[in-house]
């Protein structure tokens, strides 16, 4: 009997007692409805909490109405909270699913304290734990990600982890209890649903008891993890300093890369970044790596770890007065060295001048070039430090050169001086080539794929500029997609037009940023390296091709850029200028 299994599980895992008040997370679906019915039947004191995320239109309101009637019939106190989930996801640059999860658990905890409940009971069951195991395995994970779902996480408890979805449905059918169904759970839309609807049934054909096998594996790994955690804690103590980690001591550990992962992953560094840091341990000093809030610097003998100090960057210009004077110049003209005087070509000035502060994209590498070049002139500097300064100068020279290249490109496009060499090219072949190129240099765990139903597509285009355009969009996606997938697609929008798209599963773009994303020097994240000109250049190239570029406003699981390209643009003079 399911109630007996659940009662034994609650007692064995010490989830709560009959004296405790239990706050049940109630969606109205089969699992949460069964959880509340079981706990009430077993004599526990329960209250219910329901979230309306307003993501499924009438379905969301239907669920709330069902839950209200259900709790009223059971004489159970119900609390309902409404969320504008899509708005929160856009504002925080996270997925809809992540936003909903954060909102619900934050409110559950607030309500638990207010109602003085001992725990929050959620309805995850055995199938959910198996799906979590497989999901983490597919994405790539450490031992912690292979533990499945745990019975206790702070004040959140999961009494149904001992039973399967099939057992829950059988129980509800036996007692004649209705429930509501989330239509999105029946769609092959999200990765977890793909596992539930496609992968697990396939695995069950190979091994009918595969779920029990995976659960037993996670239970064994729980024991292994306890030993692993102790080993990691001891290892960190051996290598830690007040400023970071001792490199020599770290490299002498039995599994130095795993130990480094356990230190840096909680600080926001993804697996790819941790691997880069590990490889840098044996290289020259001066290399830096950054997550959203932390910075790692490779020093001589230490790996320095420090919190990034966020300095507000403002574009406001201090009040000043300027005058303009137009003058004829001769070949003997000498540009004045006064820093308050600027000499400009009058023939190229049209209208008023606009002033703005130097962008940090220019200021940072210039400061580095100036500062470290000055250090190199100090004869007392030792060889190792001199080498570190030289490496930093070279790195910042590359950043500045890339920025200058982008500025030159955008200026050439503005003035019509960028040369386009149009010819018939195979767009499918170009897409395959650019995916191979980006795969070799990407600094992300995300998978890059190209999909098309076309074997070949002849475009009258500039092949080099089309590659530049695709490269800009794909590299932009890699900066904001540490894991998941980046997909380049090519199809025919119409008999005369090709449609390209670059879709990622990253942080997405808020509506506020979306309106300005193609503006010059506009960046989603000021901490992410780049000139802020790549998308502006992309837009200008698309327009020269005779197409349009935009962001898909309906795609919510990341960002999707789309652009069109005519198949046979008229071969006009200006097109090949």
Key attributes of the depicted protein:
577 residues, alpha/beta, Rossmann fold, Uridine Diphospho-n-acetylenolpyruvylglucosamine Reductase, domain 3, Helix Hairpins, 4 domains, 6-stranded mixed β-sheet, 5-stranded mixed β-sheet, 18 helices, 17 strands, 15% strand
In short:
The protein is an alpha/beta fold. The chain has 18 helices and 17 strands. The protein folds into four domains: 2-219, HUPs (Rossmann fold, 3-Layer(aba) Sandwich); 240-307, Uridine Diphospho-n-acetylenolpyruvylglucosamine Reductase, domain 3 (2-Layer Sandwich); 346-415, Helix Hairpins, CATH 1.10.287; 423-576, Heat Shock Protein 90 (2-Layer Sandwich), CATH 3.30.565.
Description:
This protein is an alpha/beta fold. 45% of the residues lie in helices and 15% in strands. It is built from 18 helices and 17 strands. The protein has a 6-stranded mixed beta sheet with strand order 3-2-1-4-6-5, sandwiched between helices. Strands 12-14-15-17-16 form a 5-stranded mixed beta sheet. Strands 7-10-9-8 form a 4-stranded antiparallel beta sheet. Strand 14 and strand 15 form a beta hairpin. The longest helix has 33 residues, at 383-415. The radius of gyration is 30 Å and the shape is globular. Mean pLDDT is 81; it is low at 360-373 and 571-577.
């Amino acid at each position: 009997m399911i109630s007996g299994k659940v009662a034994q599980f609650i007692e064995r895992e010490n989830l709560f007692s009959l004296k405790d008040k239990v706050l049940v997370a109630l969606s109205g679906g089969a699992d949460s409805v069964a959880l509340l019915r079981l706990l009430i039947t077993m004599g526990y004191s329960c209250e219910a909490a329901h979230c309306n995320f307003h993501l499924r239109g009438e379905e969301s309101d239907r669920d709330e109405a069902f839950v209200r009637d259900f709790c009223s019939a059971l004489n159970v106190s119900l609390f309902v909270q409404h969320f504008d989930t899509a708005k929160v996801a856009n504002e925080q640059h996270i997925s809809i699913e992540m936003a909903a999860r954060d909102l619900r658990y934050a409110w559950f905890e607030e309500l638990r304290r207010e109602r003085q409940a001992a725990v929050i009971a959620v309805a995850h069951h055995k199938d959910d734990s198996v799906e979590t195991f497989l999901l983490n395995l597919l994405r790539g994970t450490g031992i912690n990600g292979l533990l499945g779902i745990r019975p206790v996480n702070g004040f959140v408890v999961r009494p149904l982890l001992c039973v399967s979805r099939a057992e829950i449905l059988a129980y509800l059918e036996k007692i004649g209890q209705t429930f509501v169904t989330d239509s999105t759970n029946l769609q092959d839309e999200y990765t977890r649903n793909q596992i539930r609807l496609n992968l697990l049934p396939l695995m069950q054909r190979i091994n009918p008891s595969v779920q029990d096998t995976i659960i037993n594996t996670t239970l064994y790994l729980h024991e292994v993890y306890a030993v692993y955690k102790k080993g990691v804690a001891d290892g960190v103590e051996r290598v830690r300093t007040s400023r970071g980690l001792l490199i020599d001591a770290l490299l002498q550990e039995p599994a130095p890369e795993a130990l480094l992962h356990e230190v840096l992953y909680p600080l926001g560094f993804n697996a790819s970044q941790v691997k880069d840091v590990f490889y840098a341990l044996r290289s020259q000093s001066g290399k830096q790596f950054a997550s959203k809030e932390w910075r790692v610097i490779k020093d001589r003998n230490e790996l320095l770890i420090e919190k990034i100090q966020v300095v507000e960057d403002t574009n406001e210009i201090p009040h000043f007065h300027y005058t303009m004077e137009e003058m004829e110049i001769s070949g003997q003209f000498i540009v004045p060295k006064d820093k308050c005087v600027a000499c400009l070509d009058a023939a190229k000035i049209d209208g008023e001048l606009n002033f703005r502060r130097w962008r940090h994209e220019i200021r940072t590498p210039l400061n580095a070039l100036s500062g470290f070049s000055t250090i190199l002139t100090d004869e007392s500097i030792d060889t190792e430090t001199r080498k570190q300064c030289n490496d930093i100068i070279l790195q910042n020279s590359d950043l500045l050169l890339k920025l200058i290249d982008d500025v030159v490109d955008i200026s050439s496009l503005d003035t019509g001086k960028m040369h386009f060499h149009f010819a018939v090219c195979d767009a499918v072949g170009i897409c395959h080539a650019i995916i191979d190129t980006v795969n070799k240099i990407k600094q992300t765990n995300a998978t890059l794929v190209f999909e098309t139903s076309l074997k070949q597509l002849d475009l009258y285009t500039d092949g080099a500029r089309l590659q530049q355009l695709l490269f800009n969009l794909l590299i932009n996606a890699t900066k904001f997609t540490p894991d998941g997938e980046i997909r380049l697609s090519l199809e025919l929008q119409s008999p005369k037009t090709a449609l390209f798209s670059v879709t990622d599963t990253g942080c997405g773009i808020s509506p506020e940023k979306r309106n300005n994303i193609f503006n010059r020097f506009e960046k989603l994240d000021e901490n992410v390296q780049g000139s802020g000109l790549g998308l502006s250049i992309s837009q200008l190239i698309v327009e020269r091709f005779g197409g349009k570029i935009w962001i898909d406003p309906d795609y919510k699981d990341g960002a999707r850029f789309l652009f069109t390209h005519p198949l046979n643009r008229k071969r006009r003079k200006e097109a090949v200028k």
